Amino acid sequence: MAVFTPLDDAQVAGFLSRFDVGELTKLQGVPAGTENSTFFVTTDRRELVLTLFEQGEHEELPFFVELLDFLDEHRIPVAGPIHDRDGIALHELAGRPALLFPRLPGAHPSAPDVTQCRALGQALGEMHRVSRHFGGHRPNPRDIHWLSAMHHKVLVYLSPEDQALMQDEVDAYQAALESAEPLPQGALHGDLFRDNTLFDGERLGGIIDFYNGCTGDLLFDLAIVINDWATDADGRLVAERHDALLEAYLAERPLTATERELWPLMLRLTALRYWLSRLLVVYVDPPAHDLTPHDPEQFRRILLARLEHGALPLPDIEARP
């Protein structure tokens, strides 16, 4: 169960009284999730989601509120936080920071099809196009600087072959990125796996869970998505899903020449990012709650597949007018 701080009806009813959302009729804890406590809240007027933040840097929560407000204002399919009657979104409940959201339609796509990949690619392209104008700033906490600083902590737990693989990859990323032209910057989701989306059939209901959101290389965000959405169980890219997602994305935001050049490397870098972060959870910094960590081997396979087979050709698509 991923409700780490239980709530009762009276607590939530009192919390809701600050907002113009109706009276509480039903409260249900959500078992999914690994970091925060989440509840489905039903009122006599609408369906909502209540999130209590259990860990992380709470002083960074205003950044996430500002980012979601910005994307919602630009009609990107996200759940913008609900503000109370005084215009305030971020509150405290049961000693935890709390945000209230509209509940978006749909479910997580465990095996996304081509149409769903196309819808996600279009939404991500739109998001990146407008997010370049977002005024907030939060450095990417999992970029090359983090990889360089943190990979040493797990080397002792790896085979000699994997130690060399990880060290060689970090060295290659540093050399390539230091000599390259700057990449386009903007606000990123930072963790846009399929379980951070909701689909109502083939229609994208929304993108959720922006709590790894940051600002940085837009290409980094896109590579995370391709490595999850367009990869098979062996770690190899699936051409149909890869092409559908990227064609829709590139119609909204074309890549620069430098982005196209660095694309194969960025696929590897983001694979290593998740291999390393999962190794750290297993061996160095286990979760605060009794949860099963994600398997690091999944992203080791993806990294090895990218090294062996490379990247698929990028579609040659003109952006929309």
Low-pLDDT stretches are: none
Distance between the termini: 47 Å
**Could you report the average pLDDT, rounded to the nearest whole number?**
94
- CATH T-level fold name of the largest domain: Aminoglycoside 3'-phosphotransferase, Chain: A, domain 2
Tally of contiguous helical segments: 9
Structural class: alpha+beta
Please trace the helix and strand order, writing H or E for each element.
HEEEHEEHHHEEEEHHHH
Number of strands: 9
Shape from CA axes? globular
Largest sheet: 5 strands, antiparallel
- The amount of helix comes to 40-55%
- Architecture of the largest domain, CATH level 2? Alpha-Beta Complex
- CATH homology superfamily of the largest domain: Aminoglycoside phosphotransferase (APH), C-terminal lobe
Total number of distinct structural domains? 2
Catalytic activity: L-homoserine + ATP = O-phospho-L-homoserine + ADP + H(+)
GO molecular function: ATP binding; homoserine kinase activity
Organism: Halomonas sp. RT37
Pfam families: APH (PF01636)
